[in-house]
Design brief:
It contains 17 helices and two strands. By secondary structure, it is mostly helical. Strands 1-2 form a two-stranded antiparallel ribbon. The protein is globular and about 70 Å long. Bound molecules: iron/sulfur cluster (2 copies). The site of one iron/sulfur cluster (SF4) has 14 residues, from helix 14.
Length: 362
């Protein structure tokens, strides 16, 4: 602090309230989708005599693996697969947000990220009271644990990208994929003791250690973190005005040493802008375009994230690729034996379909 005792105080308004509002609205939307989907399940269970026949397409946002397969199928065939078209557009919207504002989905929209943040704030207060600081895992153990989400991501992407167009079409059009959202509903509605314990442990770990799930295990976040490297925006620190107070690093939920770098290049940066809001010096920590070094207004990030999401999902709606075309009676029929619908393809099946695809291509 000695080198620059006098500085111009940062009077810029914090963006955190707006971020909290956006996160809350999106979480409420997800809850609403959950309620509507439970009514649809009731409709299936009662052969259409109760509940609601409306299946909310937004539920497909919770099927990222199916959506990634749809995207890869689209890249190969030029066709948007009709089983979970909304999932395809939601996935592209999230990818789009990450390409512009790094891993912003995690800190602006993701309901799991939001919950992690809330319990992490609560946990921080407790650990700061007891230990006078946040708990931080030993550096090398942290590197090892962070690699787990990349291993999971590598497993999923390798499995998907090794599938031919025919194999993808077979999977995407199969009963397992059609019912994947219903199966997910039953997984949580009739949660097994083991799954309950695992989720409970992850929840507790997220209280003790901020963003435990997001930082170490979420393959979706890993994917978005990698995409973030392509983003034209970065948090930048002006070393000539910085007073080395370290408040930015202290505020960063991703444990990034913002006070030690000029440009934040970490895959863990979610563009939450907590660091910028914590910085006490004017024009010292800013979100900038890499190429022009031009400062980006914080409100533009809020607006940008929401607009990208609404524009791309809206495109799905206006082009008629939102509601899937699976008839309700097919859903009712499949739901009768939903527990016996298993994954349709072994690696041997995929190999055979890939070979068939190669034969056709020749
Ligand atoms: S570096 Fe700043 S914007 Fe990035 S995660 Fe940390 S606090 Fe958020
Ligand atoms: S950039 Fe970080 S260390 Fe420098 S003045 Fe701002 S908060 Fe303090």
């Amino acid at each position: 602090m000695e080198k620059k005792e006098k500085f111009i105080r940062n009077k810029e308004k914090s963006i955190q309230l707006i971020r909290f509002i956006v996160q809350t609205l999106f979480a409420l939307l997800c809850i609403w989708i959950g309620i509507e989907f439970s009514q649809f399940i009731k409709f299936l269970e009662t052969n259409g005599t109760a509940g609601s026949g409306y299946r909310p397409p937004g539920v497909e946002g919770f099927l990222p693996i199916s959506s990634l397969m749809s995207l890869y199928y689209f890249l190969q065939s030029g066709i948007i697969h009709p089983v979970h078209p909304a999932g395809f557009f939601i996935f592209i919207a999230i990818v789009g947000m990450s390409l512009v504002f790094r891993k912003s989905f995690c800190s602006w929209l993701c309901p799991i990220g939001f919950l992690s943040e809330l319990v992490g704030d609560f946990g921080d207060k407790i650990t700061r009271k007891i230990f006078k600081r946040r708990i931080k895992i030993w550096k090398y153990l942290d590197y090892f644990l962070r690699s787990l989400k990349y291993l999971l991501l590598a497993f999923f992407t390798f499995s998907i990208f090794s599938m031919s167009e025919i194999a993808l079409a077979y999977f995407l059009g199969g009963d397992y994929n059609i019912m994947s959202d219903v199966k997910m509903y039953y997984f949580f509605a009739n949660i097994s003791q083991t799954a309950f314990i695992v989720i409970g442990v992850l929840f507790l770990l997220s209280i003790i250690y901020r963003n435990f799930w997001c930082r170490y295990l979420c393959p979706y976040g890993a994917f978005l973190g990698l995409l973030g490297f392509l983003s034209p925006t970065r948090i930048k620190r002006n070393t000539s005005t910085c007073i080395d107070c370290g408040l930015c690093a202290k505020a960063c939920p991703s444990f990034i040493k913002v006070d030690k770098v000029i440009t934040v290049n970490s895959d863990e940066c979610t563009s939450c802008m907590n660091c910028i809001d914590a910085c006490p010096v004017e024009n010292t920590l800013e979100l900038k375009y890499i190429a022009s070094e031009k400062k980006i207004n914080k409100k533009l990030v809020a607006l940008g994230v929401v607009i990208i999401f609404l524009a791309i999902t809206g495109l799905g709606m206006i082009t008629g690729n939102w509601q899937n075309k699976v008839p309700k009676d097919v859903y009712i029929k499949l739901n009768k034996n939903v527990n016996s619908i298993g994954h349709p393809m072994s690696s041997e099946d995929i190999k055979k379909l890939n070979e068939e695809s190669e034969r056709k291509a020749k």
